[in-house]
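Worked example

This section walks through a single chain of length 111. The input is the sequence exactly as stored; nothing has been trimmed or padded.
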Amino acid sequence: MVFQSSSLSSSSPSPDTLSAADAAGVDHRVHCLSILADPQPGLIERVVGTLSKRGLLPERLVVAVDGDRVALDLQASGLEDKVASHLAARLRAMPGVISVLLCLKNGCPAE
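Given that input, the structure is written out below as tokens.
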């Protein structure tokens, strides 16, 4: 499963349609990590543990088993791009991990 960024309109929303978070300048960017791995005991704990060591908790975690592969899709907001890239590199280095895709989803909390 690959996350796709939502399309953004070229026009800016009017000030009347901005949420309180938008008005406060809150960043709504969400980093999405899609991980393909061999099914191994403790895989989910190791993936989530990589985030929790940095004080992060995924806002969304979806796990799907397809034959001899496990797909984990997680989303986390409030990350700097550099931190998200570092996390992806750490996940790629885990035993049993086949691939890690990192993308950025721009959106708002209402999505």
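What to look for: Residues 37 and 70 are 5 Å apart (CA to CA).
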